[in-house]
Amino acid sequence: MENVRNLFQILARNFGLLNEQCCDNCCGQEVSLVQSHILYEINRQHQPSMQEIAGALGMDITTFSRQVKTLADKGFVKKTPHPADNRINILSLTPEGLAIENAIHLTVNAQLHGILSTMSEFEKDTVIRSIQLFNDAMQKSDSCCVPPK
Amino acid sequence: MENVRNLFQILARNFGLLNEQCCDNCCGQEVSLVQSHILYEINRQHQPSMQEIAGALGMDITTFSRQVKTLADKGFVKKTPHPADNRINILSLTPEGLAIENAIHLTVNAQLHGILSTMSEFEKDTVIRSIQLFNDAMQKSDSCCVPPK
DNA sequence: TCAAATAGTTGCAATTTGCAAATATAAGAG
DNA sequence: CTCTTATATTTGCAAATTGCAACTATTTGA
Fold it and tell me: Which terminus of chain B, N or C, has fewer Cβ atoms within 10 Å?
């Protein structure tokens, strides 16, 4: 009841390790862990700008700019000028980028399901619903998870 | 039921942001995020060696060695040669290191409780129990969360 | 007693990071 | 319409982080 931090710290660490390993396994030296986060978020959003993705990930925009350039050079991400505002670049995944994102997604998802498979149906449902609940609560709380300005 | 990855990806990301912000807020330029992870794990284990902490965090031992040196130079971590084996260094927090770790712990814990406070008692309990359950399942699963050899 | 194993540290060289300053474009005031 | 200001993104640069290979120091075991 008290030590909530421990739970989340360990969870986040373990998921991070799993994520990193999966990333290594499915896409070899193709993309780094942070780059995989970028692919993930571009895929998730609808015609996002650089700012939007960088903001969602809490990344410094200059660091982000360079990482996107790397991904674009590798042919995984495409930058399209916004039709109504040339300052803005719309980001999208190329077919190759999408393939990598999908590979990572399937691998991570399979690992997670493997872990959940040790539980009863009821427990599994409860765990999933709980995390959903917590994510929603986090989203609503503006005191946190808002990247610094 | 299907898309478990999304849930964990977002959870881990948001907790990461929260963790980072807390770290900035309580200890200013004192320690970086990775260094805070090191303090956390040293505090958690009982007379740990370098290998044990680096292993738990999935960090490369050489990177870890340098980070520990930085922390030792700052006076937050102490390295004590193992009495029975001089190759091994036992790591421990200095009072200053412990103070920082405690400050981070309290801040993160408070934030998390703030988020949980928007839920009913029942929901709160369920969420906490669920994460406990999942962490245990992860620990048992040897297919993941085992840093690459 | 000496060859292998183990713990940890350094020498690089590449990558990543973020602040400050620059560029490019758009929007608004007059 | 023109000039100031705001917004989006990129670069310069210098510091911090990373990891592989090689090295040192100790211990273990044949």
Answer: C
Structural domain contains residue B6? no
Average pLDDT, whole number, for chain A? Answer: 92
CA B49 to chain CA centroid, nearest Å = 16
- What total number of domains does chain B contain? 1
DSSP secondary structure letter of residue B84: T
Q: What pLDDT sits at residue B130?
A: 96
Q: What does the alpha-carbon distance between residue A54 and residue A51 come to, in Å, rounded to a whole number?
A: 5
Which residue does chain A place closest to B130, by CA atoms? A127
Minimum distance, in Å, between the CA of residue A58 and any CA atom of chain B: 7
Query: B72-93: per-residue pLDDT in tens?
Result: 999 999 999 999 999 999 999 9
Q: Band of the pLDDT at B143, cuts 50, 70, 90?
A: low
What is the distance between the alpha carbons of residues B44 and B125, in angstroms, rounded to a whole number? Answer: 24
Q: How far apart are CA B21 and CA B35, in angstroms?
A: 14
In chain A, residues with a C-beta closer than 8 Å to the C-beta of B141 are: 114-115, 118
B54 Cβ contact partners less than 8 Å away, ≥ 6 residues apart = B60, B61, B64
Phi-psi region of B94 (alpha: psi -120 to 50; beta: other; left: phi over 0): beta
List the domain range (segments joined by +) for residue A110: 16-140
Residue A116 touches partner B, C-beta closer than 8 Å: yes
